[in-house]
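Dear colleagues,

As part of the handover before I leave the project, I'm documenting each prediction I ran so the next person doesn't have to rerun anything. This entry is a single chain, and its sequence is reproduced below.
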Amino acid sequence: MNAIALGIDRARYETRVYFREGDTILFTFLFPLIMLTIFSVAFSSAGNFGTNRDGSGGISAAAFYLPGMISAGILLSGVQNLAVDIAVERGDGTLKRLAGTPLPVLSYFIGKLGRVLVTSVLQIALLIVIAHFAFGVALPTAGSKWLTLVWIYLLGIVTSAVLGIALSRLPRSGKSATAVIVPIVLVLQFISGVYLQFSMLPVWLQNVASIFPLKWMAQGMRSVFLPDSLQTLEQGHAWNLGGVAVALGIWFVVGLVASIATFRWIRKDT
């Protein structure tokens, strides 16, 4: 219980520090909102997505890109943010100093996960509010849709968090963390249906994207915010929420095992 209480205090500290860093706010917290705004404005004159031949139906660009931006935000909050943050703390000796304090490892990770949960919930809420009130995106009215959003978010964020912890071992130093992690995250966004309509990608690239969790998070979020008529654009022509749960569950286990096996308090070069 003491470790949990310390972890909650650590989460408060981590969250305060997060919102004091301007570059972090811009490139992780506000980045999905910026991209949603750019795509909504840039494609507003192109007509609705999924419009029938008679000109009826379809959804706006903002509505089409909202699920992808929410999914990208989850990935940025969990994978990119934690991977870079922990790599920097390892490189500058922060982890080594923490290892010499009474702070348990469990409390350290509760602090990191707590910050990720707080910031990502705020980010998703901001995306939904801006999409609805600024761009007129209609929100789901069925309670089942919101329940789907909740479980996909929770499974997606914890999966992203453990993968971020595991990937923090890749950079050889804190200075190289951003250069190593950001390209990985950026490539995944392009091949997973975040910036490009997933059905437009070659089949082989769709299959590659299906190996990774972001594709499944984006697909699950599309099932929440897009009309069911658009599920024909997905692989298998269905939302396949069972597949979403299985894929994210597998990646959670992989990330958890990798995190436990690779995390060390001390620096990599000592």
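The chain has a mean pLDDT of 92. The first helix runs from residue 2 to 18.

All the best with the project,
I.
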